[in-house]
Design a protein that fits this description.
Length: 174
């Protein structure tokens, strides 16, 4: 029963991650396209776009925060694994859980703070695009929530199906 729930959670996280990665790809492609268009307009037509830099910046911000969750899903956040590599399988498993729980606590605190900042920015409007700044700020709590989801899923998967001790550190958490 628990294994079936763990598989369902993992499948859900996989779908969420696929959607995030599609969003990231579209945002990066749009950033490159708009930046290229700005260069063509500025140097080819001698007339620059007033909104391109702001659009590129905001699209990149969204891509970064969506990417934090995707990186957590893949287990590719930067790590110093000297201690982890020196531990036997059982203590390594508990260290991985502790690290994931610490990450969850950090991103929960980050999400809370980002929500407060987003609420404060609701009335602010961006200069060139004339969109609410909160539309940009909300990317931070969304990215934090995605990261928490994937870290929690890693813990669940580690308990549902522990991996071989020689497997490199990536989700699921061993």
């Amino acid at each position: 029963m628990a294994k079936r729930h763990a598989q369902a959670l993992d499948a859900f996280c996989d779908r969420v991650n696929r959607l995030s990665e599609i969003g990231i790809a579209l945002l990066i492609a749009a950033t490159v396209g708009v930046t290229f268009l700005q260069v063509v307009c500025r140097y080819g037509l001698d007339s620059s776009l007033s909104w391109s830099e702001e659009f590129s910046r905001y699209a990149f911000i969204w891509a970064i925060f969506l990417g934090a969750g995707s990186v957590a899903r893949r287990g590719q956040h930067m790590v110093v694994d000297t201690l982890r590599g020196a531990l036997p399988a059982r203590p390594r498993h508990w260290l991985d859980i502790f690290i994931a729980l610490t990450g969850i606590a950090f991103f929960a605190t980050f999400a809370y703070t980002a929500i407060l900042l987003t609420q404060n920015a609701i009335s602010q409007i961006s200069t060139s695009l004339q969109i609410p700044i909160a539309v940009i700020y909300v990317s931070a709590p969304i990215g934090a929530a995605l990261t928490i989801l994937h870290l929690a899923n890693g813990i669940v998967q580690g308990f549902a199906a522990p991996r071989e001790p020689s497997t490199p550190p990536a989700l699921p958490i061993t």
